Amino acid sequence: MATMHVELVSPERMLFSGEATMVIARPEGGDAAFLPGHAPFLGLLGIGPVTIKVEGQPDVRAAVHGGFIEVRNNRVTILSDVAELASEVDVVRANAAKARMEDKAHELSDGAAAAALRRAHVRLELAGMANTH
Fold first, then answer.
1. What is the DSSP letter of 129?
2. Which terminus of the chain, N or C, has fewer Cβ atoms within 10 Å?
3. Exposed, middle or buried, 47 (CB in 10 Å: 0-12/13-18/19+)?
4. Beta partners for 49?
């Protein structure tokens, strides 16, 4: 199967670097899937999950909180403001942040609480602990 080189980078470290068969991300405007040979693309990333499909291995999933995605020359580069692998999500911390932001969401009008709440939801979703209702 055809592959492309993928790098997922945060300011702190390289979270993933390797060959993949598909990348699913959430650039502004909606979810997008990138396959080997994809046309050039440059987009802003919001708060959302990224899935990297690696042939013969479990998917690499990460919570990405803003940044950019660039696709060109059979490479996908994700530069994230903040990112964490699903396997590294601190569920207790994410639940606490979710509860705090749910309490504050009605008090803040600048969107900070809503963004923090979305980050907590993405972390919990990736950790497999999201409330389904």
1. -
2. C
3. buried
4. 63
Got the DSSP string for the chain? ---EEEEEE-SS-EEEEEEESEEEE-BTTS-EEE-TTPPPEEEEEEEEEEEEE-TTSPPEEEEEEEEEEEEETTEEEEEESSEEEGGG--HHHHHHHHHHHHHHTTT--SSHHHHHHHHHHHHHHHTT-----
CATH architecture observed for domain 4-86: Sandwich (2.60)
pLDDT in tens, 73-130: 999 999 998 888 887 766 677 666 666 666 666 665 556 666 776 777 777 777 774 4
What is the spatial distance between Cα 86 and Cα 14, in angstroms, rounded to a whole number?
15
- DSSP-derived secondary structure letter, 39: P
